[in-house]
Design brief:
With 191 residues, the protein is of the alpha/beta class. The chain has eight helices and five strands. The radius of gyration is 18 Å and the shape is globular.
Length: 191
């Protein structure tokens, strides 16, 4: 089995993205014996300088060898500069994304596992398309303003109910979804 150079978990709902990313992160960390080989880097950036700092920290971390020669795992957590916002549109951010692409292309998956979680992501951008195409891409759905994505919320609710040992009828699910107006976090709390 060949490993992907990185895993990207992205979607419109930051709660769903973070929930799925935490689950994948736990799986990745379970294979690591050394706590020094586990690193989390904040990808939240309000300014271009913060984007550059996050990319540089990821570069340094990817290039660092494991203390005992084992595999390392890195989570670029909560990336905000891939969105259609002022920071995401900045020319400096586009340059930093090119640098990030070079870093990700250099990853040797047997030595370093990289997880990237991002919400929201402007999927029209060239770099976002490259991320989806060249690594393992997991879309963490949610319900958009037009009501699309209800199936994802229903599946998430059914999974949560199953873990709690509870069953909910279809009508109860529909009522609950309408009460929480598609808010995934509130949906799980109410369950």
């Amino acid at each position: 089995m060949s490993l992907a150079k990185y895993t990207l978990i992205a979607g419109p709902d930051d709660f769903l993205v973070n929930r799925l990313a935490k689950k994948r992160w736990a799986e990745m960390c379970a294979t690591i014996d050394d706590d020094f080989s586990i690193e989390e880097i904040s990808g939240h950036a309000g300014k271009v300088e913060e984007v550059d700092a996050a990319v540089n920290m990821l570069r340094q971390s990817v290039q660092t060898l494991g203390l005992f020669g084992g595999r390392r795992v890195i989570w670029l957590k909560g990336v905000s500069f891939l969105a259609d916002n002022q920071t995401g549109r900045a020319e400096g951010t586009q340059k930093a994304c090119e640098d990030l692409q070079e870093v990700l292309e250099s990853v040797i998956p047997e030595e370093v596992g990289v997880l990237i979680s991002a919400s929201p992501v402007d999927r029209r951008k060239r770099f976002a398309k490259w991320l989806e195409k060249n690594g393992e891409y997991i879309f963490a759905g949610g319900m958009d303003a037009k009501g699309k994505g209800v199936e994802t919320l229903v599946a998430m609710l059914e999974e949560e109910c199953s873990s709690l040992g509870v069953r909910m009828g279809r009508q109860a699910i529909e009522v609950l979804l309408s009460k929480v107006n598609g808010n995934s976090r509130l949906l799980l709390e109410e369950a």
